[in-house]
Amino acid sequence: GYAGINWPTAFGGQGLTHIEKLVFDTEEMARGMPNHYFRVSLGMPIPILQKFGDKEFARERTIKALAGEEIWCQLFSEPGAGSDLAGLRLRATADGGAWVLNGQKLWTSYAQYADYGVIVARNDPTVPKHKGLTYFWVDMKTPGITVRPIKLANGDDHVNEVFFDDVRIPDANRLSPVGGGFAVAIATLMIERYSAADSDGFGPHLDLFIDLARTVEIGGRPAIEDGRIRQQLARNFAMRSGLEAITKRAMLAMQAGKEPGPEGSINKLVSVRSRQKLSELAVDLQGGAGLAWDRNANTRENWATSWLTAPTGRIAGGADEMLLNTIAESILGLPQDYRPDKKVPFNEIPA
Questions:
Q1: Which pLDDT value is given to residue 18?
Q2: What global pTM score does this model have?
Q3: Cβ neighbours of 344 (radius 10 Å)
Q4: Of 27, 31, 242, 318, which one is least surrounded by beta carbons within 10 A?
């Protein structure tokens, strides 16, 4: 099918280019095609498995994921470690040729449907927080895993809290060197930030907003004729054009064999902020009708739901503040902010 357009044929893909995938994704998004249940699987865990996992196992899982027969989730955030991923506390204790996981993950999308997940855990609390982490994959049917959905303001319940109680997994599930999981986690986040910006659908939202501005009125005239609305449209169109250029440049770089870079932070930061502002303005333009919504309606044309959903995009995959730090340090070359806990053993950092 059309999933895995740019993946190697050895992994069940079509072996086409990143640019060809971008073209298809753009057309798919413009038509509002649903991809929620598979977006996480194909967007983050499977590419990481292909790069860091056993090749035969990765090939088997990729083919199953492409066929929609298996769903993956990403077990990163915790109650006290969302934006600061390196602050996570879920423990991985070595036990012979296995690991025992204990702790909690939070805001895990589609965990209640997932067959497998990728997870970062703390294997050594006696070293600085970035160094004592290890990256694994886990079968979500393993005894000791409990998944509890969380109801969001927009009515969705696709995010979950996940509890691990003496969950035993083999060392063969490890996708990083022991203590080297943070680098793999960052590789995942680099992919996620492009994926989050794409799935956010800022471009199609702008087109839908233009349609709305043509139908609602301000002072008896179509809203699109109002100078204030036109100014907002011009600003957002310019931002969309800039994001498209950054995305194309990133796709060309990956086509040349380079890894996704920190530019994904710009994409995510701008797209989710812009979507939130557009949604708020759309709700205002609709007046009282903008405050009510039909849960069964097309969410792409449901501005109240979009407005309620938008804030989650500013947290998932890295909060605004973390993205600004990444942009400042990795793109603009500014000095790092002072971090008093950077070289302190994790177990000596006040909870």
A1: 81
A2: 0.86
A3: 14
A4: 31
